[in-house]
Structure formats: structure tokens, C-alpha cells
Amino acid sequence: MEFGTYFGGLVTGLREGVEAALIVSIILAYLAKTGNAREFPRIWLGVGSALIVSIAAGVILFLTIGGLPEPYEQLFEGITLLLAAVVVTWMLFWMRRQSAAVKGDLHDRLDRVLSDGGAWGLAVLAFTAVIREGIETSLFLVGQVTAASQEGDSGAVAVLAGALTGLALAAALGYGFYRGSRRLNLATFFRWTGIVLVFLAAGLVGSAVHEFAEIGAIPFGTQTAFDISAVLPHKTGIGQFLAAILGYTSQPEVIRLVVQLAYLVIVLGLYLRPMAPQGGRPTSRRAPAQP
């Protein structure tokens, strides 16, 4: 088995799988910590459906077009990245609203949310998180398998074996996060996972802007803001991991840097601001009744 092609598939599987595993583990940990583990099957239904669709899409792509031509590949990736950012942001503030119920009758409040379709909403979120990564993985792997096939069948097998290894590692990381998060204080869990999601979504937005700028859909601010690739390149080592999780790049365009930082400042500020007390309007002292 060729190590180079195997490692390429492994990086693709790990890079694309970690984000989905992180979001799914946050959903599962949230349900477990609030006494709603009975809703796990709905989440796994969303995950399983996304996996099936992703595999089918990969097979269809390989048998037909073998990958999207430019600029359609960048356009597709940009749109899916923005869609994922919207979904993750929605989840972030949904969790923030529900975490306010921790200070009281949490289970009754959450049961009402879940009975109104909240659990199916989380299932859709799990499906969206996995399907985006699954479709992107299919696109990347189709290109890698096509290139490796030119060197023989062993190259294609190595790519697929590496991808499966990377996905298994991503699942293990997600499970580790899930197990660790269950030992956290509930308020701490909500706060820190929310902050992680803000940075994750900011990376998605920045990556989407990069894709649009690359095909000329954004005609301004496309010059490089700075270049620190000699210090922390985004294609190898720690930089590659940060790129996969947080959308890091050592050579960001000006427009990407501005948009990503703006998202971080605005959304993080909204997320961290104190919430108004829930459970009714503030009480006020009544004036003495007039005789």
C-alpha cells in the first residue's frame, strides 16, 4: 500500500470528519446532560441518513462527472459552507436560550421544546452537519481516487483506506469529547461549547468568502492581507489541523480576514452578553391603593 496516497486519504477523512463529529457530540452531550437521551435514535437517524446520501453521492460523482469543474466546485463549496455556518449559528443561540432554563425547571421546559419538534430539529442539524462534510469528502476523494487510479488500483485502495482511518479517528475524537463533556458543570458546558461553535462557524464563513473570492464572485479585497506561511503554514502540521477546525490560513485575503473577524466580534459579543431573566416580567412594587 502506498503511504503517500494513504496519508492523503487519511488527512481528508480526518479533516472533514472532525467538524461533523464535534457537532454531533455536542448535540448528544446536550441531550444526555438534560435527561433526554431517549432522543438519541433521532440524532443517529439524521447521521445515518447523511452517511448514506454522502456515499451515494460519491459513487454517482465517480461514475459520472468525476468531480465538479471550476468554478462550479468553488461555488458549491462556498454555498455549503455558508449554509453550514447558518445552521451552526442557529444551534449556538438555540442552546443559549435553552441553557437559561438550567436555573429552574429545566426538564419541564426542555420537554416542551422537544415535544414541539425540537428533537427533530436537532436531527436535521445532525444531518446537515454530516451531509456537508460527507459531500465535500466525496468530492475530495473522487479527485484523489481518480488521480491515484492512474498509478494502479492499489493507489485508489490506499486513498479509501486512509479516508476510512481518518473518519474513524474523527469519530474517536468526537466520542472522547462527548465523554468528557458529560463530566462538566452544565453551565460551563454550554458556555465553552458555544464559544467553540462561534470560532468554528467563523472559520466556515471565512472559508466560504475565500471560495467566492477565488472565482471572482467578490471583486474587491482579494489581495493577501499577510503571509505567515514560513512560521505556521496551513497545509502541514498544526496549521493544517487549525485550518480543518477553525478555517485558519497563513495567507488570508483582506476580505476574508475582515468578514471572519467581523463575524467573531459580532456573534461572540451577542453570545456572551447577559441574558434577560426568563419566566415572566420583572416585578415592580405597587403603589398603595387610594381610598
Shape assignment: globular
**What proportion strand?**
under 5%
Number of helices: 8
Q: How many domains is the backbone divided into?
A: 1
- Major beta-sheet overview: none
Mean pLDDT: 76
What's the number of extended β-strand segments? Answer: 0
From the N-terminal CA to the C-terminal CA, the straight-line distance is 95 Å
Task: Give me the secondary-structure category.
Answer: mainly alpha
Describe this structure in words.
With 291 residues, the protein is mostly helical. The chain has one domain. The model is unreliable at 102-107 and 280-291 (pLDDT under 50). It has helices spanning 3-33, 40-63, 72-99, 106-149, 153-181, 186-214, 237-246, 254-272. The termini are far apart.
